[in-house]
Amino acid sequence: MLKATLRSFLAHKGRLLLSALAVLLSVAFVTGSLIFSDTVSRTFDRLFASTAADVTVSPKEDLDEAVHSGRTATLPAALAERVRQVDGVAAARADVKVNGLTVVDEENRPVGPTTGAPTLGYAWNPNERSPVELTSGHAPRGPAQALLDSETADRRNVRIGDPLTVIAPPGSFTVRVVGIVTFRTTNPGSALLYFDTPTAQTKLLGRPGTATAISVDAAAGVSDDQLKQRVAAALGAHTYDFRTVGEQAESDVEQLGGFLDVIKYVMLGFAGIAVLVGVFLIVNTFSMLIAQRTRELGLLRALGADRRQVRGSVLTEALLLGLAGSTLGLAAGIGLAAGLIGLMGLLGMNIDADEMEIGWVTPVAAYVVGLGVTFVAAYLPARRAAGVSPMAALSDAEVAGVGRPLRVRAVAGGIVGAAGAAALAGCAVSRQTSSAASLLGLGVVLTLIATVIAGPLLVRPVIRVLGAAFPALFGSIGRMSQRNALRNPRRTGATAAALMVGIALVGGMSVASESMTKSFDRQIDKTLGADFVIQNANFQPFPQEVTDKVRRTDGVGLVVRGRFTPVAVRLPDGDRVETTAAGYDPRLDEVANITYAQGDTASALGRGRLAMDRDFARDHGVRMGSTLPVEFAGGRSAELTVGALTDQDSAEGFGTQGGLFFGLGTLERYAPGGQDSALYVNAAAGTGDDVLRANLERTLEPYPQVQVRDLADYKRLVHDQIAVLLYLVYALLGLAIIIAVLGVVNTLALSVVERTREIGLLRAIGLARRQLRRMIRLESVVIAVFGAVLGLVLGLVWGVCMQQVLALQGMTALAIPWVTIVLVVAGSAVVGVVAALLPALRASRMNVLAAIAHE
């Protein structure tokens, strides 16, 4: 049996090649994502561990202050002198590090990275742990000198002696490059500027005599933990945060983890699609091979092979296929990881491909996925093969029948489909976002399974409709192509299912994204009342000088400032919610349209008061007039009274969770020194919008990070952000289509082999080669369009349910992207034509007499 199995596998290796490609793609994405994430994680582990001090003392911050407010948490630089006196300290230095600088050259062109990585400013304090070393020029001396990293200098063509303008939180200042530093470790993609310590303190922090951390080196024989305990005892354990080198490196890696997780999960998403679609392809391939080998299997049974041996033979073939696909997929995954590492290099993150990390988990995952996929996919065909009776050797009967199994499918599909429909219905009527999302996920999975199970039942009614025009358009050729697609509903259903998965995904996400876009457009129209909004490109705060210059711009009438700050609110139900609150100037009503359930803008922005979303307040037992303890960054706290409850949808809220906002007076009292994150600007009387926009853009020309947006710009911004999600979905669709095309090619190729004698007879009675190719192409097209129709129906149902979940978050508009639907159907027809090219060509080249004599 082993010899027979190996001979059978080698005899059909050409037919199994396309199935092996599906396994290869699945394994490649899994292993590529694991290798890439492991390599990047290990690289940054080494970077952070090699550059962190033995012990780092930093300000105690429970809330993320710098991200929202523009303030950088500091501590007294004089602490370094106190730390030096601690027993076991070899050295201590006050560090300054500020994130989010903007740097431009003398032609006002940005010098920093454009890939989202930050531009960082440091105090120049070289030591053996510094990530850079001075390779040309000299150290900075005085407020007009700075060092720049070599990679940024090369990328932006900056040389020693060139002037740069630095836009920092306290304001702008000009420096001249006096030296170039080179990375001794991996460059994470950031641009680095170094200043002398007094300049960094005054120009970057705005507070002389301060630092962002104290770095402490241990003396010989003193462990990091011992040093941490001694320094904490000297300074007060509850006054600052104290981290050893390992703890600091772990904290830095956690901050990077979000970026790495995004890449990993995206690639695993591709792997999941490849696995799912590949299962359909492998099931179909083995089902057809077994159907074509009915006589062979029957003879094996007649010669004494039992059911277990036949089943084992088929599964052995599948495992050989999985072994080959897994091995090739592992190699392809290494290449994919190398490509991603190279791509990161183009984006400025220099990772050495020679240090690629391939842990033991990666090959294990490769073979578990590859062998698991093929084993699961081949199990049902193997069971059917074991059921071939010895009498089948005397006939050409196929294993697959059309009677009872379809009835079983109908019952199973109906039960699963009913459960899925119930879950989707529950999602549509649920009022809680978490439960609605859970029901949506369950409903999507169950309805997808139900459609796959019951797909063959839909083949005949749907394809009769889809192919109804074929006889009129293509005559007898069209009629035969339609009947070929109807001949074996299981095969047609399984072939179309691979395409259906991808199209259902893109259909559902297209409805959701179109609905989100329409909802945001509606909310922006409803809420935004300002002529223009001035904001940083990445929504971060900007220096006070920007606000001052905007106010002095010709044609500006009203300017309402908006600031954000992290807060923690203690609620009556006992919850402590950390969120972001906003502060606004008193004339907010003139630039925004806010709907209040109770109270008004005056009571919301009054001294010691705050506004809150009505639904959030109801869920936590808050009422008008309730007094709530609010914690601000820096350890400050206040008792604020609820002065207004808003009836804003979440899509148009003024904060994040809870929709909290208050007056700028309240914000300045408890969180002073913050920076504006948005300016809402109305034109003065007699000034047109075009004139004011031109004046504002001229004013803000020295600040390339700050943008002027009107209503249309805001909508375009939202559209672009949603489009990023759609591009990912389209990429997933593209992968699904690639594997689906392999499946259609495989099905048609095996079908041509199965119908060799029939094709020979058709050619003998006058069917031309061109007509034969058209017949196979039309069969492929109708199968592909059938899969597209099923996918679109399923995707539209999913999309409508997704919109119901989004409606709970304020995005209440439902929009169907009809253009996308038409393009998908047309594209599926093209997919069918492309998939049929090789099988049709092969069929048309058959020798007529040899085909007629084929057994």
TrEMBL record:
Compartment(s): Cell membrane
Record's signal peptide: none
Transmembrane intervals: 265-291, 318-344, 364-382, 439-459, 465-481, 493-512, 724-753, 778-798, 818-838
Domain ABC3 transporter permease C-terminal: 270-390, 732-848
UniProt xrefs under InterPro entries: ABC3_permease_C, MacB_PCD, Macrolide_Exporter_MacB
Membrane-protein topology: Multi-pass membrane protein
Domain MacB-like periplasmic core: start-end pairs: 17-233, 492-697
Primary location: membrane
Keywords from the UniProt entry: Cell membrane, Membrane, Transmembrane, Transmembrane helix
Recorded family membership: Belongs to the ABC-4 integral membrane protein family.
Protein name per UniProt: ABC transporter permease
